[in-house]
Specification:
By secondary structure, the protein is an alpha/beta fold. It has a domain of about 190 residues: P-loop containing nucleotide triphosphate hydrolases (Rossmann fold), CATH 3.40.50.300. Helices cover about 35% and strands about 20% of the residues. Strand 1 and strand 2 form a beta hairpin. Helix 6 packs parallel to helix 7. It is globular. The structure holds adenosine-5'-triphosphate and magnesium ion (MG). Adenosine-5'-triphosphate (ATP) binds next to strand 1 and helix 1.
Length: about 300
């Protein structure tokens, strides 16, 4: 249903054309789920923005993004507007930026229903109330008449989820949907997201720093580093093999590793304006040699590494 093939994005920075995504490829079947993980600046949000056609206008995009048989990179703004919110739902990190402080939450959830599905005011209001009820904000606890400032952060993100789901999209993209929330609320909101996606047979693209969440919520995982996918595959298989040294390092740095303390990854993510010539992870990698510094390793058997860690 979603096919991303050789996606490349470059942004002009200080008179220079700087690649921020290189050769990102993956597919998501109907009802499938994928997680994008990687350190800050690895290109996770860029990937999501490219799929939604929300890259900055000066971005230079290459490769292919096909969604339900359409070439999204060739679609005009009108076509993209019809797809966004209708066929592709989005949930971002900070719920307040997605909500209008001057509109009741019921009216906000009803808005896409009126715009995309052309429901009458009454029908949209009824469906909005049902959606709010489904995300745990029914009349008993909250209700459509409330305004965003009257809600907690977790409740606001539930409103955003209700909005994203309103038109029954085929694909839900959630970019760090819970990082602004308390740890205790994070798990509830993610569980709700995964549950609703499954219930509706929706595909889910989930961006998160939390490897524990990935292992529990999504069927496939893509590990990104410096604008490239370095390891990808079925979640259980990737976690079992962790063939790319970066995947290992990321896992070791994660507070979710059973037992032991998190071990931070030494060194820094490279500046995209000064990318090393070979594997971008080589300067931080314990296994790197001259070959790694000379050429970018191609993706082979789900791992882009000249010296993958053996099982
Ligand atoms: N508007 C922008 N103009 C120029 N460069 C940008 C812009 N937004 C992001 N970048 C660069 O693009 C690269 C990828 O950024 P992206 O936001 O996709 O990372 P990310 O993986 O989502 O990180 P995070 O975990 O911090 O959200 C980074 O090098 C970043 O500096
Ligand atoms: Mg991001």
């Amino acid at each position: 249903m979603l096919e991303v093939e050789g996606l490349t994005v470059a942004l002009p920075m200080g008179g220079q054309k700087v690649p921020v995504l290189s050769g990102v490829s993956f597919t998501l079947a109907q009802g499938g789920s994928a997680g994008l993980v990687g350190e800050s600046g690895s290109g996770k949000s860029m990937t999501a923005l490219a799929i939604m056609g929300l890259l900055p206008p000066e971005a230079q995009v290459g490769g292919q993004i096909r969604f339900a048989g359409r070439d999204l990179l060739a679609a005009d703004e009108a076509a993209l507007c019809a797809i966004r919110g209708r066929r592709i739902g989005m949930v971002f990190q900070e719920p307040m930026t997605a909500l209008n402080p001057l509109m009741s939450i019921g009216a906000q959830v009803a808005e896409p229903l009126r715009r995309h599905l052309r429901l009458s005011r009454a029908a949209a209001a009824a469906r909005a109330a049902a959606l709010l009820d489904r995300v745990g904000l029914g009349a008993g606890r909250a209700g459509p008449h409330l305004y965003p400032h009257q809600l907690s952060g977790g409740q606001r993100q539930r409103v955003v989820i209700a909005m994203a789901l309103a038109c029954g999209p085929d694909l839900l993209i959630a970019d760090e949907p819970t990082t602004a929330l308390d740890v205790t609320v994070q798990a509830q909101v993610l569980a709700l997201l995964a549950e609703l996606a499954e219930e509706a047979g929706m595909a889910l693209l989930l961006i998160t720093h939390d490897l524990g969440v990935v292992s529990e919520t999504v069927a496939q995982v893509l590990v990104m580093y410096a604008g490239r996918v370095v390891e990808q595959g079925a979640t259980a298989a990737v976690f079992a093999r962790m063939a790319h040294p970066y995947t290992r390092a990321l896992f070791a740095a994660s507070p979710h590793e059973a037992g032991g303390r998190p071990v931070p990854i030494a060194g820094q993510v490279p500046d995209p304006r000064a990318m090393p010539p070979g594997c971008a992870f080589a300067p931080r990698c314990p296994r790197a040699d001259a070959a790694c510094r000379a050429a970018v390793p191609p993706m082979r058997d789900g791992t882009a590494c000249f010296h993958p860690v053996a099982g």
